[in-house]
Design a protein that fits this description.
The protein is an alpha/beta fold. Helix content is 29%, strand content 25%. The protein has 3 helices and 8 strands; from the N terminus they run βαβαββββαββ. The chain has helices at 14-27, 39-51, 115-130, and strands at 3-9, 32-35, 61-62, 73-76, 87-90, 105-111, 135-140, 146-148. It has an 8-stranded mixed sheet with strand order 3-4-2-5-6-1-7-8, sandwiched between helices. Strand 7 and strand 8 form a beta hairpin. The model has no long low-confidence stretch (mean pLDDT 92).
């Protein structure tokens, strides 16, 4: 069964939260696709993953590259899954895929300070529950660790 996780970003930037989650996915041997809503955001995250740490980087690419199917982490704007990922990250109100059951895990990251993002997350949550799918809701505690809230 697909594991669906909602991560509520409160006082956190996606650029700080996404890389550690991607690292953990790669450590588990998972291929990842990250779906965004704008080319500008994808380009910003693409550049960020090359420089966010002094001691390394996360191997990744974008859907535009000929090597897209070989990338362990792939950024895209569509529901496609060119690298055969088993984990899908949805950012910036990207829509839930039509076939959520085809993934081992779906991670929906939303900005808790953006009312539209919160409303979109609530809609996705309700739609998943109506389909009989299980989802969990996570929020960072005072120490910045993710805590399961629902």
């Amino acid at each position: 069964m697909t594991e669906i996780l909602f991560y509520h970003l409160q006082g956190q930037k996606l650029e700080g939260v996404l890389p550690p989650l991607l690292e953990k996915s790669l450590e588990r041997g998972w291929k990842v696709v990250v779906q965004g809503s704008s080319e500008e955001r994808i380009e910003t995250l693409d550049a960020h993953l090359w420089t966010y740490r002094d001691d390394g980087f996360l191997p990744h690419g974008t859907w535009r590259e000929p090597e897209a199917p070989q990338q362990p982490i792939l950024f895209t704007l569509t529901e496609s899954n060119p690298n055969g990922a088993t984990v899908r990250f949805l950012i910036d109100r990207a829509p839930m895929p039509a076939d959520p059951q085809s993934y081992q895990r779906i991670v929906f990251l939303f900005d808790g300070e953006d009312e539209e993002a919160v409303a979109a997350a609530r809609t996705h949550w309700s739609e998943l529950k109506d389909k009989g799918l299980e989802a969990t809701y996570w929020q960072a505690d005072e120490q910045g660790r993710w805590a399961k809230k629902a």
